[in-house]
Amino acid sequence: MFSATILRIDDSVILPSAEVLAQNSKRGDGAGHIWRGIFCMPRFELRPTMGETICLRLDDNSRITGVVTEVEGQRVHFRARGRAPLQAYEGAVTC
Fold first, then answer.
1. Distance CA 95, CA 92 (A)
2. Ranges of each domain in the chain
3. Rounded to 10 degrees, what is the CA torsion of 26, 5, 75, 32?
């Protein structure tokens, strides 16, 4: 898992600090690798909607852009292109 600030495409903050878990996608293994990510939203927060583009701002101010694929209760699922941070595959998401 890794920590990130979740942003909308207009740089407004959705969630100031989220723990993100990455999973390999069933498709893609080359330079255009696609991975899936999951993070939890606290209750009563305005969640992103399916199909919305989000950005994950990492501690070093780099960004990962993804598209929300599912909102399931407090869990938000997204897909992103490229390589996920190495520590992203360790841990479990608990809401």
1. 10
2. 2-89
3. -10
Q: How far apart are CA 27 and CA 31, in angstroms?
A: 12
pLDDT tens per residue across span 43-59 = 877 889 999 999 999 98
Q: What is the dihedral of CA 52, 31, 5, 37, to 10 degrees?
A: 70
Over residues 11-44, the pLDDT tens digits come to 999 999 999 998 887 665 555 578 999 999 988 7
Q: Which CATH architecture has domain 2-89?
A: Beta Barrel (2.40)
Could you give the CA distance from residue 54 to residue 41 in angstroms, rounded to a whole number? 14
pTM of the model: 0.84
Supply φ then ψ for residue 29, to 5 degrees: -150, 5
20, 56 contact by CB (below 8 A): yes
